[in-house]
Write a structure and sequence with these properties.
The chain contains seven helices and nine strands; from the N terminus they run E-E-E-H-H-E-H-H-E-E-H-E-E-E-H-H. The chain is of the alpha+beta class. The strands form three sheets. Strands 5-6-4-9 form a four-stranded antiparallel sheet, sandwiched between helices. Strands 1-2-3 form a three-stranded antiparallel sheet, covered by helices on one side. Strand 5 and strand 6 form a beta hairpin. Helix 3 packs antiparallel against helix 4.
Length: 230
Amino acid sequence: MERVGLDAELISKSGQRRQVRIARRLLSDGSELGIVTDMSISGSLGTALVEEMRRMTRLAEEDPVTGLLNRRAFNEGLRRLEESSGGDYGVIVVDMDQFKKINDTHGHVAGDAALKIFAERLRQSLRGHDLLARFGGDEFAALLPEIGEGDLIETAERLRHVLKVEAIVEGTALHLDATLGYAHATPNPHTVFKRADASMYRAKRRKKQLARAATLNPGTSPDSAESLPA
């Protein structure tokens, strides 16, 4: 939410006076970010100020590794959805499998490269108006407005296959995979996210159990037995 904060006058070293109008954006955690929304100045002073404000906005809302939105911006999207008239929507939570092992074995450069591969595949597989964020670590989340439950399930299934990747990172072959959880609309968008997150963790526990069963019984295949959580 934005509201006008104040009009101000900037005075350069040469004594030149410039008028600016500053708006304040209220972020989801209760903090505020000042943004220049209207300026009557030109030249290098105005350009530098505008660029600095844009940079501050990006830092507040963007994940530095993947370029996706961060958790704060995603929560702001949930809040706005809650305030809107609603409609069908869903949330998909994605967790990269074995991310810690990739970091520990191949280093953080390889880990960051794997995150960027995931981010790009997610971005290409979702619609332009879907909200996609990295929550930190190996977890991503997508908010999909105006989607029925059947289409949400199909999207989650498609993502599960798209994120199964054999990639060459820093000269090393990596097998990338993901565990997904999803939930369809309830009256409270934050509740939908919690349900999707819990669904993902249930699927992750099940995948680990299937992997252990496959180790004990070579005739069991974790991949063939796996299914998306309900």
